Amino acid sequence: MTPTVEDARRIAIGLPRAEEALVRGRVKFRVRRIVFAALSRDETQLGFAFSREERAALVAAEPHKFQLPGESDLRFNWVVARLDALDLAEMTELVLSAW
Fold this sequence. Notes:
Elements: H1 5-13, E1 18-23, E2 26-31, E3 34-39, E4 45-49, H2 55-61, E5 66-67, E6 78-82, H3 88-98
Antiparallel strand pairs: 1-2, 2-3, 3-4, 4-6, 5-6
């Protein structure tokens, strides 16, 4: 089952101290000022915090699911996933790990 934006919201907001914010037209999930997950403007992609040292391997292993963030965001610990390429369990794991 492909996860939805509502699934991402339910999982993220259910975490302790997590809140939803709308920043420049994008839904972001954060704890205080630190963003751990975010949806693309068109809500087809989920960005999430991920180890900078391990992200190249993740993207290389499953390029149909994952990609590096845009060049301006490479300095952050961040990976982007296509929602339609994930299942609900995998998205849940990614959001929980990012938190």
